[in-house]
């Protein structure tokens, strides 16, 4: 009976270790995704500054001629 209990504990430990590794992989993926979202957010805040240009727009009767 004691051997059976030790085998069950070993199996539980193995399953727990596998689950911990799985959660760590998920955490790494989520952290990577957060980093990508942060990069996108930074790009979106920079875009208005990069896309503004000084232009001269013709106005009046000859502008559309």
From TrEMBL:
Keywords: Coiled coil. Residues 13-47 form a coiled coil. InterPro entries: Prefoldin (IPR009053), Prefoldin_subunit_alpha (IPR004127). This is Uncharacterized protein. It comes from Phytophthora fragariae.
